[in-house]
Protein 1
Amino acid sequence: MTAKLIDGVALSKKIRAEVAQRVIALGARGIKPGLAVLLVGDSPASQVYVRNKVKACEDAGLKSVLEKYTADFSQTELLARIEALNQDPSIHGILVQLPLPAHIDANLVIEAISPLKDVDGFHVGSAGALMVGQDGFKPCTPYGCMKMLESIGVDPRGKHAVVIGRSNIVGKPMAMMLLQASATVTICHSATPDLAQFTRQADIVVAAVGKRNMLTAEMVKPGAVVIDVGMNRNDEGKLCGDVDFAGVSQVAGWITPVPGGVGPMTITMLLVNTLEAAERAAA
Ligand code: NAP
């Protein structure tokens, strides 16, 4: 079997065009969705991520404000900036780029963001809402994965989904969203013995680990949907995922590429969340 590709670039383009239309509709009511992106420190990777987010906002007609601070910016100053943005009616979404320098408590910072503007979906209020099935902002990466499943007509209901990874930003919310969609969900992690025993039973596998080639062809059930969240570098320095793409694409029914899979969808769902925050504020 040769797997069909789930094209995150094409799906992103479609969703971003829909976002742009809704932004125009809000504009007719005098509202422009606004995202504030806060970056502390000079990590080159973080600089690229925030630049991509800001550009995506501008391309879709949203306002974006990038605030860059040096690595010695204090926690107190950062909390004060967040409080000011919480009160700013022209800002509908606040994103603090992680990781933060060691002297800043990331949990404290995330909890300082108003849940109404928590477009990353990392606030405990958003996590709790997801847990109990209430409306709240969903973390962008797993939200994007759910959109990818929807785009290929795969309904998780009744399927066995195996999520590899249990981080608060990907693995756990991914598992919750699949559960909400009535999949039977198994969560695997670094203490899971014999990972393949679980993945081989899966109709849907989501790999969110951060180790290349950790999911190989013999670990995948023929026809399964394989979503690769991982972002790693291969020996040539090229971006690659957690999945052995060449091998697994011979067995799976559907597969996401890296690059061009989950990555673009993450930014797309950030735009969707920011737009929805503005629409909710205007309602
Ligand atoms: P993380 O916080 O480091 O979590 C990694 C998870 O993988 C942990 O739960 C860990 O288990 C588990 N794990 C490690 N080794 C394992 C093994 N041998 N078998 C099974 N599970 C194992 O990472 P993250 O933030 O969730 O990100 C995961 C990957 O996705 C990274 O490559 C990251 O760069 C990428 N990512 C991509 C996007 C995107 O937009 N494409 C967005 C976010 C993240 P323990 O909990 O037991 O340690």
Protein 2
Amino acid sequence: MSVFDFEPILSNIRQFADVATDLAELQEFCVSCIAESRPHYNWVGFYMLDTNDPDVLVVGPFRGAPTEHVRIPVAQGICGAAVAHGDVIIVDDVEADPRYLACSLETKSEIVVPIRVDGDAIGEIDIDSHSRCAFGGEDRAFLEECAAIIGHFIGQHPR
Ligand code: SME
């Protein structure tokens, strides 16, 4: 089996980050690139802490089915746990994780990767797949690099 090469996607995102004028534009570009390149990433989106209420995540640009979870308290969900602890969370089988907030009945696995600015988690990239165990170390490393590009951009263009 050939190994997927994530570098061209990262290169596109890095180049776009150099010219993007605001965060929403860069996030739109990211979700579009990532979803088109990885068809088994069935929902790809951002959640960012509400600048007026840092105990709540607000959905940002996404690709995939509309979600009822447009605002997620930091105390809830896999999304909340990832930003609260500042750690990547990979869930191989969402049915087995009591924290899971269902977006689509088809979702089987999920990865959430925090976005940090000056060391603080201020948002995240959230990906769902219709397959169990869809996310491994290479997906994690790729998405951590995406999150680092976004975090660097926010550091230079404060919200
Ligand atoms: N599954 C997430 C909620 C977001 S939707 O998947 C888009 C969670 O458990 O926090």
